[in-house]
Design brief:
The structure is a single chain. The chain is an alpha+beta fold. It has a domain of 50 residues. The protein starts with 29 loop residues before the first strand and ends with a helix. It has one helix and three strands. Strands 1-2-3 form a three-stranded antiparallel β-sheet. The protein is globular.
């Protein structure tokens, strides 16, 4: 299963973090990722948002579908 395609004509966001993973205050820099977990009932997808200053997960979402809603829900939780 392929979930990432880097060979596309779409614009790529600027790298404003520039590998600075030591922010000076809370909520200055967040990072996010999606992973998949095999279960007896099929794949379960997990999206997480981490605050790099506190190293805490500030938002997350789980779904049996890997779609934009998965990411939007994790970001909405982080913003709340």
């Amino acid at each position: 299963m392929t979930t990432t395609d880097s060979n596309h004509p779409h614009p790529v966001a600027e790298n404003i973090v520039n590998r600075n993973f030591q922010p000076s205050r809370k909520n200055e820099t967040w990072t996010a990722d999606i992973t998949y977990i095999p279960t007896d009932e099929g794949w379960l997808y997990l999206a997480a948002v981490e605050d790099l200053f506190t190293r805490e997960i500030v938002g997350w979402s789980m779904s049996d579908r890997i779609d934009s809603r998965l990411v939007v829900d994790a970001l909405a939780m982080a913003l709340a």
